[in-house]
Amino acid sequence: MKNTLYRWFDGDVGHSLRASPLAIGAACVAAVCVFCALFAGWVAPHNPFDLATLELSDARLPPAWSPEGSAKYLLGTDDQGRDILSALIYGTRISLIVGLAGVALSLVIGVALGLLAGATGGWVDGLVMRVCDVVSSFPAILVALLIAGVARALYPDAPEGIAFGVLILAIAFAGSNGWVQYARTVRASTMVERGKEYVQAARVTGVPPARIMFRHILPNVTGPVTVLATIQVATAIITEATLSFLGVGAPPTSPSLGTLIRVGNDYLFSGEWWITVFPGIMLVLIALSVNLLGDWLRDALNPRLR
User: How many structural domains are present in the chain?
Assistant: First the structure.
C-alpha cells in the first residue's frame, strides 16, 4: 500500500498536483471539511442538537468579534441559541454523507447501464438511450422534488433513516445530474473500447461477454467516470441543500447546510445576517473546492492536456 501511494505521488498525477497551487489549496479545503465532518463530535465546540444544552437567552447572538457577541460562540448563534460553528460542522457531515451516497448510487446505476448499452448495442442500446433522453427532459430539481414529495406524502411519519434514503434516491435520479451522465459517458467509451484488438482477442478466445465488460472494458473507462464523479459530488451537495432549503430534504432534527440556510433566511432582513451567511459560505467553499479538484483531475488524467 505504501509503495502504491509513493508511485502515485511520484508519477504524472502526483507531479500535476504538486505543480498546481490551486489544486493543492482546493485539496486542503476539502480535506479540512471532510476531517471536521468525520470527527464532528470532537471538533465542534458544542453539540447544537442537544436540547439540554441550549439556552434561549443566547439566541441570535452576533459573532464573537461584534460588541454584542460572546467569546463562547465564535460565529454567533441562531434563533434557538445553537452555536453556528458547531451547527456548520454537523451540517457539513450530513451534506457530505448524503451527497457522496447519492453519487455512489447514481454511479453504480449509470455505469452498469452504460456498459450494457455500449457492449450489447442493438435494441438494448436504443432502449437505454431513450430512457436517458426521457429522464434528461425533466429538470433535475423537479425530479428530485417529485421523488421527495411523493415519499413524504406516502410516509409522513417515516423515521430519519427512511428520510435520508429518499433524499439519496432523489439525488441519484435527479434528471441529467444523476445516473444519466454516467450512462452516456460509459456507453461512449465502451463503444470505442469494444472495437479495439484486445477486446476482439478476448472474444475469439471464448471469454464470456459479462467478463469482457467488467474485466477488460470497465477498467479502461474509469478515467472519465472518476472525473465525472468528483464533479458530481459538488452538484449532489448543492441539490441536497436546495431540497433542504425547500423543506423536503434533511429532517429538521438533523439539519444540513440547506436547512441552516433556510432557517437563517427568515432573519436575514432583520439584521441577523450571520445565521444564513456562514452556512452559505460553507456550502460555496465545499462546492468550489470539489469543482476545482475535478477540473485538476480531468487535466491530470488527460494526456492531451499535459
Answer: 1
Low-confidence stretches of the chain (pLDDT < 70) are 1-15, 156-161, 175-177, 252, 302-306
Cell of 282: 460553507
Q: Classify 57 in phi/psi space as left (phi over 0), alpha (psi -120 to 50) or beta.
A: alpha
Domain that holds residue 23: 2-51+60-305
Q: Which residues of 282-299 are buried (b: 16+ CB within 10 A; e: fewer)?
A: bbebbbebbbbbbbbbbe
Backbone Cα Rg of the chain: 23
Tell me the CATH number at 136: 1.10.3720.10
What single-letter DSSP state applies at residue 60? Answer: T
Q: Which three cell numbers stand for residue 156?
A: 409522513
Tens of pLDDT, residue by residue over 104-119, are 999 999 999 999 998 8
Query: Do 10 and 280 touch, CB atoms closer than 8 A?
Result: no
Residue 148's Cβ-count burial label (10 Å; 0-12, 13-18, 19+) is: buried
Q: What are the CA-CA distances from residue 103 to residues 8, 130, 280 (Å)?
A: 24, 22, 22
Which residues have C-beta within 8 Å of that of residue 223, sequence separation ≥ 6? 301, 302
Do 168 and 101 contact (CB within 8 A), yes or no? yes
Grouping H, G, I as helix, E, B as strand and the rest as coil, residue 271 is coil
